[in-house]
Amino acid sequence: MTVTDLDSSIASATVILTPYYENLDNMGYATSVEGISYSVTKIASPAGYMYKFTADSGVATPAQFQKALRGITYSNDGPYNQNADRVFTYVVTDENGGINSVENSTRRLTIVPTNDPPELPKTAKAISTNEVGRCRLTL
Q1: Where are the alpha helices (DSSP H) in 7-125?
Q2: What is the pTM of this model?
Q3: Residue at 130 is within a domain
Q4: 76, HSE (Cβ side, Cα atoms, 13 Å)
Q5: Which tens digit of pLDDT belongs to each residue from 20-35?
Q6: CA distance 72 to 26
Q7: What digits encode the pLDDT tens for the residues 114-127?
Q8: What residues make up the domain containing 80?
Q9: Could you tell me which residues come within 8 angstroms of residue 118 by beta carbon, excluding any fewer than 6 positions away?
Q10: Rounded to the nearest 10 degrees, how much is the dihedral formed by the CA atoms of 69, 10, 90, 46?
């Protein structure tokens, strides 16, 4: 992703993830950029999650905002996958309120559910009994 601006003065940038599934989607921020602060907001309609980056001094360079936007992380950590595509939308605003060029400002992530076979924990032990005996197995 490349962030550009004619006068090199960016005021803010946002990344919005839609849809966002609580307990499945895990969106984070892995990079600290000097001069840039961020906030996180859940969006009710459409269900989403938003990271907003702002320049501490009012403006920052496109390179600073580009580094901040590239620091967004995502994982799908649920025990099952919600197979709806996720859409990441990027918006960058300069100090005059204009919307700037963000290469590929929308990215679509396709989630493909898998049917994993069940597994016993590594601590499972063999159980044996004679043919007329009984044993209780608790899973």
Answers
A1: 62-70
A2: 0.72
A3: no
A4: 18
A5: 887 788 888 888 899 9
A6: 11
A7: 676 766 666 656 66
A8: 10-109
A9: none
A10: 110
Token code pair at residue 68: 């901040």
pLDDT at 101 over 60: no
35: left (phi over 0), alpha (psi -120 to 50) or beta: left
Average pLDDT over residues 89-101: 80
Structure tokens at 137: 């197995």
2: helix, strand or coil: coil
Collapsing DSSP states into helix, strand and coil, what is residue 66? helix
Which CA distances in Å does 120 have to 91, 111, 131? 46, 26, 24
In sequence order, what are the residues at sequence separation of 6 or more whose Cβ sits closer than 8 angstroms to the Cβ of residue 5? 62, 92, 94, 100, 101
Whether 66 maps to a domain, the answer reads yes
Asked if 46 and 103 count as a contact pair (C-beta separation under 8 A), the reply is: no
Instruction: Give the residue carrying structure tokens 């049917």.
Output: 115
Structural domain count, the chain: 1
99: phi then psi, degrees, rounded to nearest 5: -85, 130
Within a domain: 2? no
